[in-house]
Amino acid sequence: MRIAVVADPFVSIPPKKYGGIEQVIYNSIKGLLELGHEPILLAAGDSDVPCELIPVTPQAVSFASSRADMAAHNRKVIKIAKNTEAILQKLIKHKRIDLIHSHVSATNSPFDIRRFKHFPNVTTLHNPIRFDEIEYYKRRYDINYISISKNQQEAFPELNYVGVVYNGENPAEFPVIEKPDDYVCFLGRFDRQKNPHLAIMLAISLGIPIKVAGKVDHASEGYFVEEVEPYFSHPLVEYLGELDFEEKIDVLSRARVNLHPTGFREPFGLTVLEAAYCGTPTLAIAKGALPELIEDGRTGLLTEDFIEGYTKLRECLEMDRSYIAKRARALFNYKTMAEQYVKAYEVALERYAISREREKIFQGLTKRAKEELEEIWQRRPQRLTANDTSESEPIFGS
């Protein structure tokens, strides 16, 4: 199968630093190639992938660093979206692809897969659906969607889903650490959805060192300076900035516990999986997909809030790190992810074939009906004359 894989232009693939979605895309391409398929990636030109790469922009354009920069940044992204659509049209015209797989975010990009609704396509929903996006998705009930957790579908069940595909990476890239160092960690975005300040507060209240790392952008404005940065002067807190892949693995693998105080309906939770690959348990707030990733009491703990976490964190320290790693590697990996994507592609292709067949039948019916109507219209109408009636049978009632 030949698949056009479309990515956002903000981060190269694989990501040089922050970029969970981009890491997933890279691993899905790896898995598809191993299964004998032919992915073609449409992404930033500084990506480095083992398949054909068609640049939609010379290099990744990142995200707007502040709200003041957003207007200029959006103009650049609109231009890239138009280029992406033009490239796809050429691929379709020259019959180089069988299906389009979009990983593009509805929130961040003007690229619209609906313009290709008459060609087989699927879209992975990597982000939660917001209130201001409901009308957008209501106009796209005819698009094939793939969710990255069961819980994600429950938020908006009316969409046309073709499967659930859990994210996966290559477990071989993650070491299993049986004897971790004496610290807990938080990795992720520094914003009010991820709530890193709660992880820091919990660690300080228990007297445990904590390492925090992640991305700061326009979504972090105000929050980072007001609620996170003041803790960096505390002796138990070590701020590491934005890490690359190897640095991230090092921090997650040697931590005693990974802290995940999510404040929104998290569609997956990639750092939870990455920590588990290494045998590191996660203490998380039970929102979104977290109960699907964490086996409560064995690979981590799910809490209502981090006040409850204060009384439970030490339970995580006693968990079997070998079991945590084995379970994560068996259930969530790039090979399984690629296999599930192929199944979703097959569903989408079957639906497309059925819709085309229905369209042909309808067109045939329409053509036959049109011919019959034309035949009726071409008949000369018979006129009534005085000879056709009698006085006893008037044309109009008296």
Description of the structure:
With 398 residues, this protein is an alpha/beta fold. The protein folds into 2 domains: 2-169 and 335-352, Rossmann fold (3-Layer(aba) Sandwich); 171-331, Glycogen Phosphorylase B (Rossmann fold), CATH 3.40.50. Helices cover 39% and strands 15% of the residues. The chain contains 12 helices and 13 strands. The protein has helices at residues 20-34, 70-93, 134-138, 150-155, 196-206, 223-228, 245-254, 270-277, 290-293, 306-316, 321-331, 334-378; strands at 2-6, 38-44, 52-57, 99-102, 121-125, 144-147, 160-164, 184-187, 210-213, 237-239, 257-260, 282-285, 300-303. The chain has a 7-stranded parallel beta sheet with strand order 3-2-1-4-5-6-7, sandwiched between helices. Strands 10-9-8-11-12-13 form a 6-stranded parallel beta sheet, with helices on both faces. α9 (290-293) links the parallel β12 (282-285) and β13. The radius of gyration is 28 Å and the shape is elongated. 40% of the residues are buried. The model is unreliable at 389-398 (pLDDT under 50).
Largest sheet: 7 strands, parallel
Shape: elongated
Q: Measured on Cα atoms, how large is the radius of gyration? A: 28 Å
Domain count:
2
CATH C-level class of the largest domain is Alpha Beta
Give the helix tally. 12
Share of helix, binned: 25-40%
User: What structural category characterises the helix and strand content?
Assistant: alpha/beta
